[in-house]
Design goal:
The structure is a homodimer. With about 170 residues, chain A is mostly helical. Helix content of chain A is about 70%, strand content about 5%. Chain A has a three-stranded antiparallel β-sheet with strand order 1-3-2. Chain B binds a DNA duplex (30 and 30 nucleotides) through helix 4.
Chain lengths: ~170, ~170
DNA sequence: TTGTTGATTCAGTACTTTTTGAAACTTGGT
DNA sequence: ACCAAGTTTCAAAAAGTACTGAATCAACAA
């Protein structure tokens, strides 16, 4: 396989993977392109390489920066902005967990709290409250597990989980 | 809050959560409805409750069964099929992990293997291979971690992770 | 075999999300 | 103050996804 073929295949697959991970296809493709790019790229270069419009490139680059998956790099003397990807996979996964936890898990926890206040006036209501209580318990556990995971560093991950797997 | 309001809010929120988890909104809503339903429901009842078409209900119920999140329940004497949700959250999460691992992580691992065969003829190619090698290492680790997680039971999860959190 | 009840399929439609591209804005140099 | 190089925004268009409903299929009962 040639380098070009390999790169293209990687960008395509990373894009597909991203789109089932709450990161849209283009966003993931930009990330892939930057991951395998030895140097920082400008918006122009990204547009060119992925055949996308200026607006699309700009919006997705900013989103990647928001998610902490890409950094701006300013070259002295150059007005243009350049971009590099976070290349440590553990950091990448951590940042995705942080973002998705904030966007998805935390709002759900709030809703679960709210709906716990349903009047326990009927048997049905009491059953409902019980089901919600169990979901809340599980979700809180998941929430704190993720917090711990995110606070830990890469070596911890490798160590603990490798041991776990044996 | 009344029972009806609570139920509706739960169904809405679960639907929203699902749609960022590779489970479409309606699928997640059906799951939510079944979760908080004391008895098994028929397709008709689900259609009625969520105001969706027969086709939509049928397709999403089948998808939920595929994912192992809902079971068919046949009542003796009744021709109609009834459905119940898997209510153990740990089972739910496990099944989602299994499905998504199969659909997303495993194809990615295959692609990473393929593109490792790029000719290391230039410095650039060698750098590319190295980046891919690191991603592969991480992904394999994630893959086996998930395998272990999925093989373990609910108590293990509660025990180990609670300890981890302290 | 025919009628009835329920499940499934799928082409067309509705809805949602992403992308484009041109205009507006920003920044720094002259 | 003005220009040039670059960035950001956003309304409209395109692409992608989900939903509907009518037709079809399957199972059983009479």
């Amino acid at each position: 396989m040639t380098l070009k073929e390999g790169k293209d295949k990687f960008i395509q697959s990373w894009g597909a993977l991203g789109s089932s991970w709450g990161i849209n296809r283009t966003m993931a493709q930009i990330h892939a392109l930057l991951l395998i790019s030895p140097e920082a790229l400008s918006a122009e270069e990204i547009m060119e390489e992925l055949q996308i419009s200026r607006g699309n490139a700009n919006m997705n680059i900013r989103a990647l920066i928001d998610w902490g998956l890409v950094y701006k790099e300013l070259k002295p003397g150059e007005r243009k902005e350049f971009f590099v990807a976070e290349k440590d996979m553990w950091e990448v996964v951590k940042n995705i967990i942080i973002q998705r936890k904030k966007r998805e898990l935390e709002p759900m926890l709030r809703v679960l709290d709210e709906i716990s206040s349903v009047d326990p006036e009927s048997d049905e209501a009491r059953e409902f409250i019980e089901v919600i209580r169990e979901i809340k318990l599980f979700s809180n556990k998941a929430d704190s597990t993720l917090d711990t995971l995110v606070k830990s560093d890469s070596n911890w991950f490798v160590g603990t989980f490798m041991k776990m797997i044996k």
